[in-house]
Amino acid sequence: MGKVTVTPEEFTLVLFEIDRIKDRAAEIATVAGLEGDVHLEIDESNPLGRLRVVSVDPIELFAQGGAFEDPRRLRHLSDRNLSEALARLLFRVKDRLDPGFADAPEDEKLSLAQQNIWDVYCLGRVAAAGYDVAKPRWHYHFRMRHGFTDVSDAAFERVWTSDGLTWADLDAICEETERARTV
Question: Of 14, 17, 99, 172, which residue is most buried, by most CB within 10 angstroms?
Fold first, then answer.
């Protein structure tokens, strides 16, 4: 794993510890199997939680401050939210570098269901590596995007516990859950 840099170098609006963010980003990048430097830009002035992969080569990531924030202690860093947000970003980079994801649309063109299933796939892999992830929360989000059906619940478990899926696999599961919703 290369070097992790964060912008800004010092926080003035939130009480985030920059070294904690760098260390966790380096850990998760290693778990994801990424090499090279990672740059993370954080908009500390924005309490929302939007995330974006800016570039995969070099690895450049963007996060709004709310993505890392503890909802019970505003302006403070949440270890779980930090891990979840970084996993969603860094595993997405890993996937985008994999030929099995060559057909994946650009992030801006993903449907909400596609974005959600990819997030679940990323989070399941980081949970399998021992990180604290709110699985029930993400299961609920999955149901909101894929339906409250037995098919959706089975699809969630399959994606959460998988490794080695391709974009075609994730997209086919989205189609499967959509069909179950319309029956």
Answer: 14
